[in-house]
Specification:
Elements: H1 3-14, H2 23-37, E1 42-48, E2 54-59, H3 62-74, H4 78-85, E3 89-91, H5 102-110, E4 115-123, E5 126-135, H6 143-162, H7 169-197, H8 201-214, H9 219-228
Antiparallel strand pairs: 1-2, 1-5, 3-4, 4-5
Length: 241
């Protein structure tokens, strides 16, 4: 494991007090670094909205995002059990007999995943979501990697709930809802850009995110500008510098 990247990741996840903090980019940082640091092919994050309903917040790939959505829509899968119990859930071999989540297992195998680890995003007794680590081969994460995965989820949870020193639960819930709403416009921008340039969804998102960072703009603002652009050009006129 890259110890320098691990150290940098904890620093980055803890640095949520900046004025231009971007929740969506923060969550994608969590998924991307989880893949880079752990034995995972992809990662996803689901968060609870103010009504306690899970929604997909971020994913390191389109396939992982679709698997998260599949679990929510079919009301079965390790991430749902993890969120409901507040405990890590391991699906070490989705190809084995007597699957606990048969529809999810079949869909995951089709998507190229053979195992999943779900770790709760929690602060004390409050569980706000789950970090899900998808593996291409069967077998669980080792104890050391699982501890690191849980630590990444814990630090990210603290960062989300303490962003801009907000500690009241109702305000934190509003911020989480705003993050989830932002994802909708980003998904629209991904689809529009993918169609416009003939890209797959993962490459379209990478292009949006790269432009947002290089132009020092919030990812959500870039997505809004592009979706609202009458010409459909990228970058949209309102975003060009």
């Amino acid at each position: 494991m890259d110890s320098e990247l691990l150290s940098d990741t904890f620093v980055d996840l803890a640095d949520t007090m900046v004025a231009d903090f971007d929740v969506i980019d923060f969550l994608h940082l969590l998924t991307d670094r989880s893949v880079a640091l752990l034995s995972a092919a992809a990662a996803g994050v689901v968060l609870a909205d103010p009504r306690g309903q899970l929604r997909v917040a971020a994913a390191s790939s389109q396939a992982a995002g679709l698997m998260e959505l599949f679990q929510i829509q079919n009301d079965q899968g390790p991430c749902l059990d993890c969120f409901r119990t507040g405990q890590p859930v391991t699906a070490a071999d989705l190809t084995g007999p007597d699957q606990q989540w048969p529809r999810f297992a079949a869909a995951a195998i089709t998507a190229g995943f053979r195992a999943v680890e779900a770790v709760p995003m929690r602060l004390r007794d409050e569980v706000i979501g789950a970090l899900n680590l998808f593996r291409a081969g069967p077998g669980p994460l080792g104890p050391a990697e699982l501890r690191i995965g849980q630590a990444l989820a814990d630090v990210a949870t603290i960062g989300l709930l303490q962003e801009r020193n907000v500690r009241r639960s109702e305000t934190a819930a509003e911020q989480l809802q705003a993050a989830l709403n932002s994802r909708v416009i980003i998904e629209q921008a991904k689809g529009k850009l993918a169609e416009r340039l003939g890209l797959d969804m993962d490459r379209a998102f990478a292009l949006l995110r790269e432009y947002a960072r290089n132009s020092h703009q919030r990812l959500t603002d870039v997505a809004h500008n592009f979706v609202d652009s009458a010409t459909g050009d990228f970058p949209p006129p309102a975003s060009r510098h």
